[in-house]
Structure formats: structure tokens, C-alpha cells
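FIELD: query
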Amino acid sequence: MYWLRVGGGVVRRHSAAMKQTTLAKSASMTGTSLHEGHEVTLTLKPADAGSGYVLVRTDRDGARIRVHPDNIQEVQRRTLLMENGVEVHTVEHVLAALYGLGVDNCVIELSAPEPPAGDGSSKAFVELVREAGIIELYADRPEFTPTETIEVGDEKVSIKVEPNDNGLVVNYTLDYGVPFMPRTTVEFAVTPESFENHIGPARTFCLEKEAQMLQAMGFGKGANTQNTLVVSPDGPLENSLRFDDEYARHKLLDVVGDLAVTGLRLSARVTAVKSGHSQNQLVAKALRKQYEESR
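FIELD: result
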């Protein structure tokens, strides 16, 4: 059982210092999805100011799913959003790329329930955003600073969000308790430059001893050693690390993607210790609630 603690913060309001953004044009990619193993085409499209991120299932008569904490569904090892019985899952790497590059409004069309895996990071989606280009809209961009500190966790796993003066900063500590993956802490201010070069390229991973068990449970039907770092005592199987601390960077990437579900441009400092999607999502829900109550 996890605790959720809210309190101890200073009341601050969101401000509007910049203009909202969207894409200059549409851009598409096709690939295989990570967990379902479907061939899927994903298209990122421009969207109006104030619309945020919207998922569209082209294979379900254009059904729309708002990227909003109210639509989060509890599943293991990924982030799933569902509205009116239509779902899209493993959305965190796409949303992280949009948030990290500073895109506020975007329509995300998919021809299946899950985006392409790419190489297991946000790199393919970063390249898609760069292909489309980013433009400013006339509307101001509101930024939200948490009105109170939020903490979710237990004695082993935790994530805390506090007010920050300028943008989103994430500190993540990874600790899998195995000697070949030592305890590692990484920290980045999330900016377009830092995301594109230092966060977005970090790939998803699993321990070698977990891989067969996860596939037996129905995960990773489209996974292979090129889109998932399968970690053995000797390092990734049939692959190599892009960064010495790539595993921790990917967990930080997941935090960014999960917090993007809030639909808010955040000025917050996040400190996470071994947190996963379930803890991140509880924080996203609490942040959205604070925002609604502060308006």
C-alpha cells in the first residue's frame, strides 16, 4: 500500500509567460508496437490552442481519447488511457517527446491501440516532431506551479513533487538491487535541448531473467533486443548502452511522459526513488486536482 501526502507547500498560481505551441504540419511513422506486436501507423497533427494532447484511433471510427488523468487505467509496466471504452496504451514515450520538446497541443492518430515502439526510447518521436516543426499560437501558455508538495510512496518507492521557480526538473534514483545495475541517480531540467540529447534517446529495459516471464504474461509481443535493452550480468544482450546511466535516464523519461498526462506545463521539482508508472500516475492525478482547485 502506498501513502499519498499533500501539504507543506506554498500556494502559488499558474502564470502565462510564453505562447502555446503546436506542430507546423503533420508527420507520420509506421512500425511495430512493443507489447501488442501490431503493425501501426502513428501521425502527429497540429491542434488548436487549449486543446492539449488528444489521441485518435483511426481504426475505431476516429474515436477520441483525451490525455487527462481521469482517463488513466491501472495496468502494469505502461501507461494506458481509455475513454468511452476505447483505449490507447504505452503512450508515455510519445507524450514525453511532445512535452520535452515544448509542444503544447497535438492530435496523435494511431491505427492500432499502441504506438510504434521505435527503438524503445522517445528518439523516433523526437525526430517526427522535428520533421513536422513547431509553431507558436496566439494564446498564452499557462504554467502551473504546485500549490502544495505532493508525496506518493512507501518506505522503498517514492515520488515527491514540490514547487519550482522555473520549469520542470526531475531527479530519479534507480536501484534494482543487482550488482550489474548499480544504484544510480540522474537529474535534468527538462528543456527541448536536454530532452532531445540526454533524456529522449534513453531506451526501455528489462532484466534478462524477467524477459521470458513478461512475455509469458502477455507483455512485449513486439519486443526484441533492438527495441528493449535486455540486461544481463555482462550488459545488454545484442546491444550496447548509449549512456552509462541509460537505465536511470529512461525511468526519468517515463516520469516526464506520465506527468504530461496532467495536460499542464509544470514548474515543479520532482524527486523520484524507484518509482514506476503507478506512483507517477497518482502524482499526475493529484497535480491535476490541485490545478482544478486553484482556478
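FIELD: remark
The chain is about 25% helix and 35% strand.
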